[in-house]
Predict the 3D structure of the following.
Amino acid sequence: MARIVMKFGGTSVGDIERIKNVAQLVKKEVDAGNEVAVVVSAMSGETNKLVDYCRQIAPMHDAREYDAVVATGEQVTIGLLALALQELGVNARSWCGWQIPIRTDDAHGKARILDIDTTLMLERMAQGQVPVIAGFQGIGPDNRITTLGRGGSDTSAVAMAAALKADLCDIYTDVDGVYTTDPRIVPKARKLHKITYEEMLESASLGAKVLQTRSVEMAMKHRVRLQVRSTFAPDTPGTLVCDEDEIVEKELVSGIAYSRDEAKITLVKVADRPGVAASIFGPLTAGNINVDMIVQNVSDDGKATDLTFTVAKGDLQRAVKLLEDNKESLGFQSLMADSNVVKISVIGVGMRSHAGVAQTMFQALADKSINIQVISTSEIKVSVLIAEDYTELALRALHTAYGLDAA
Ligand code: ADP
Ligand code: ASP
Ligand code: MG
């Protein structure tokens, strides 16, 4: 007997037939003698719809009320799945985040889980009941509903698995595992049987939305065995996210991720003197705007230089306004903004011990005449910023260049 957390994403519970299908999958694990807890997302498209409702009423909406609205999608699916399970003779009960409770901080819209009280849950599970838990939501210090950021049900599932000390956390989705790159864009993408926590963490934070970044962070910290697998082909083996020493055949590059959520700002002729970067990024930090890639050149006359950096697309307008408002004190000549960019990243733990990974990337892009605007690297990844129109071309070229194409 094992204790398993099964998480089902939006497409997996997208309509009534699919919810019935999920109930069958849960029943199968229960019949095999396992102790099961289920975490579900909202039906596909629901959260987008709810977010849009908030925007239509108030573009700069109150985050507490936004959470009150967007958390409702999951409440529908827990009730429906509990009903579907009961119809199959499975003892099941739905749980909203606040009923457990799943306690979070007060960062509405992107809250972090602080604590999960499992007493009641373990009691019911020991009696043979299957809890069906709403993903994406918790309760904040002021007793108001919070949400965990888009894709947050993955994090709910991993947090539940850690708190329940589950043997396995199965993330059921609409692909049958983690691929070398997004299989919807590169048809030759290959499924990985295993991937390290570190590589998955980089891939997720660099744009692969198959798992929310925080869910991987949490799995890594609490050593949760995490598996990505398909709801629609449940007998196909998925991808296990695990420690490096569990992987025998290590690849130099395990994946290529992309993020369209980037925008580039260039400040032309910024004074080249100590303290300038601090004075430019200070107001952005104060405005809660994250800066990602940064390049600054040495100036040829020692007086002025150009400074380029990227921010999230959604923050572009605010960033530009903050900078323009401080133009005089910051002392730049002009500002250029461009949201027609994409960040492409190659990821692999093998990079630690092998040279030439970046060069392969630069050459492959050069061969397709794709201009690189910004480059950044870390121990296990190389990222470049290019024009968004070349996303697909670049992904496919790089996938081939690193020998990742499926046979
Ligand atoms: P769910 O609703 O089940 O949470 P998501 O849409 O959040 O599903 O995540 C699954 C999607 O992630 C896939 O449909 C796929 O298009 C996308 N994806 C992006 N990169 C990858 C990758 N490297 N491997 C697998 N899927 C990926
Ligand atoms: N329903 C939420 C979203 O669409 C959470 C999730 O699906 O993981 O972002
Ligand atoms: Mg998701």
Notes: The chain is about 35% helix and 25% strand.
